[in-house]
Amino acid sequence: MFQAIPTPKGDPILSLITEFRNDPRDQKIDLGIGVYKDDHGITPVMQAVTLAEQVLLNANGTKSYQGLTGDEQYNESITQLLLSGTSALDRCATLQTPGASGALRMLADLIADTAPNSTVWISNPSYVNHRPIMEKAGLTVKEYSYLDAQTKAVDEDAMLAQFAALGSNDVVLLHGCCHNPSGADMSLEAWQKIAELANKQGFLPFIDIAYQGLGDGLEEDTKGLHIIANQVDEFVISTSCSKNFGLYRERTGAALIVSNTLTAAMNSRAKMCELARGSYSMPPAHGAAVVDTILRDDNLNAIWRKELTAMNTRVNGLRAALVQEFQAATQSNRFDYFGEHKGMFTLTCISNEHIAQLKEQFGIYIVGGGRINVAGLNQSQVKPLVEAFVSIGA
Ligand code: PMP
């Protein structure tokens, strides 16, 4: 049966990891895979997570099946974290999913099941997995203008002009904050215009928020989302605890449906449960239990928020240092965009030739397209990185 399957091309990011690992140079720098690292290059287990795990260990739990919706306490906690204070709370249904990837796929399956002729609009550029997830669910995918490659900021006029031409068969996939891969977030004015356009044109906003707390702060990072939540009847959210709780491998996320009525939202969630039953059935329990334990305990919550702020401060410090070093080395403001971007990434838009030169000459590993994982740097690597960029004329 399987003999005819061709050898896969291989994932470019994963093969970069192997190349990096096998590179013998001491000064090599890995700016590829999108995980947060501390000053020692480690992706740490957060202290709040370790403490919550101890609580769970002492609690005489069970490993029995949990049910298709996952951990309902976690669903409630994560809903509050995202939508607290908005009018969407009482018409929202939440499904625990295996990471935001699972949420993206379940929501895509739901859309494909309910309105198979929908087109999903993703930003250009977008998270590398958005297109394949939507397409594998059977949906048509098109791109909307997003990043201005010259200014490295969002071309809001071009984006909004496209949204103004959409209709009720369209789904607009937006990044809630900390756009991946660009780091360029849109203004709150643009969010407001999107809310108005969604109401006027009838398209469905689909907000993927995988970095809440890694931009301007936990509450601040939901400001755009809250504009939609308070003004648009129907929209969906995928969210992740991979980055802000450091729970990557525990596969912890959620899919939220907000509709006109709670009944419509709950029915949609029940449909997603049926769809999940046809694949993974139930989400893994551990990560969700950890998140819920942290969010329900004042002390653990405070520890977690402090750790998250420290992560943010570290990344913002690196961004400031990059801006300063680039200004000094180029006598220009060409690289100031490093300071304007939010979250872990910045898309430099450098050429493939420059990416290859950085790897070969300096052992600096960057993924195709020129996305830099700023959160993978440490202060001592800022100067060599800037010098390498300048020496190859990137
Ligand atoms: N959406 C975006 C924008 C992402 O960057 C990622 C990767 N962190 C995901 C979704 C998937 O996240 P998860 O690891 O929770 O599946």
From TrEMBL:
Q: Which UniProt keywords apply?
A: Aminotransferase, Pyridoxal phosphate, Transferase
Keyword Chaperone among UniProt keywords: no
* One Pfam family here: Aminotran_1_2
Q: Does the keyword Transferase apply?
A: yes
The transmembrane segments are none
- Domain Aminotransferase class I/classII large stretches: 27-389
* SUPFAM superfamilies according to UniProt: PLP-dependent transferases
Q: Known InterPro entries for this protein?
A: Aminotransferase_I/II_large, Asp_trans, PyrdxlP-dep_Trfase, PyrdxlP-dep_Trfase_major, PyrdxlP-dep_Trfase_small
Q: Which Gene3D superfamilies match?
A: Aspartate Aminotransferase, domain 1, Type I PLP-dependent aspartate aminotransferase-like (Major domain)
Q: Which CDD domains does its entry note? A: AAT_like
Names of required cofactors:
pyridoxal 5'-phosphate
Q: How does it assemble?
A: Homodimer.
The UniProt entry's sequence similarity note says: Belongs to the class-I pyridoxal-phosphate-dependent aminotransferase family.
What's the protein called, per UniProt?
Aromatic amino acid transaminase
Annotated source species? Reinekea marina
